[in-house]
Amino acid sequence: MSNKVRVNKRTQSTKKYLDELNKVYSKLNVVRLDLSYKKPYSNKMTLEETNKDIQHMFNNMRSKPSVYGDKVGYMLKKEYTEDKGMHIHAVFFFDGQKIKKSAYKADQIGEHWEEITQEKGAYHNCHRNKYKHKGVGILKHDDIEKRKILDQYVISYLCKDDSKQDIESIRNSKRAKAFVRGAMPKKKNNVGRPRKDTNTL
User: Fold this and answer.
1) What is the 3-state secondary structure (H, E, C) of the chain?
2) Do 58 and 180 touch, CB atoms closer than 8 A?
3) Would the pTM of this model clear 0.70, i.e. be above it?
4) Mean pLDDT in each 10-residue stretch from start to end of the chain (201 residues)?
5) What distance in Å separates the CA atoms of residue 199 and residue 192, rounded to the nearest whole number?
6) Do 80 and 93 contact (CB within 8 A), yes or no?
């Protein structure tokens, strides 16, 4: 399979993933941040070591309900550059009926990453950026314009062609993938979409 075909397949699958999340949740809170490592650790970390930290983070989520409660999905893109070393572009989806403060949630996740990596890690809260096309925060199921931004500027970026460094690293590890996302959501038993907002975080 060519890289172009692989990227197109990945992009379409990820758009369908977001479609399915929107069918189950009338509102999604799109939380975006970058996870990385402080110098001098950044250029020493391997893909395998980064994967271990990510797995540790996910394994630890159940013990952090104040951070990850009502998380309904995620997308992660692992990259390597000479400047940043190994880093992860992360998008977490929360039930937008229950989780309102996206920038605060990104800080919580980033602080957990720092804890998991024993202070070797660092993070950048993308909600602090001034985007011309803002694809973060609350996404209503019928917000066509914001969904277009997510498709064109977020999903397309995360699913883009892997760099040579990414490909070489992945080839050296049978279990490693540059891009990962959550499983397709299960449909709720109740009929219809939830409409009433709740006054939680």
Assistant:
1) CCHHHHHHHHHHHHHHHHHHHHHHCCEEEEEEEEEEECCCCCCCCCHHHHHHHHHHHHHCHHHCHHHHCCEEEEEEEEEEECCCEEEEEEEEEEECCCCCCHHHHHHHHHHHHHHHCCCCEEEEEHHHCCCCCCCCEEEECCCHHHHHHHHHHHHHHHCCCCCHHHHHHHHCCCCCCCEEECCCCCCCCCCCCCCCCCCCC
2) no
3) yes
4) 82 95 95 96 90 96 96 94 91 96 96 96 92 84 93 89 53 61 80 41 33
5) 21
6) no
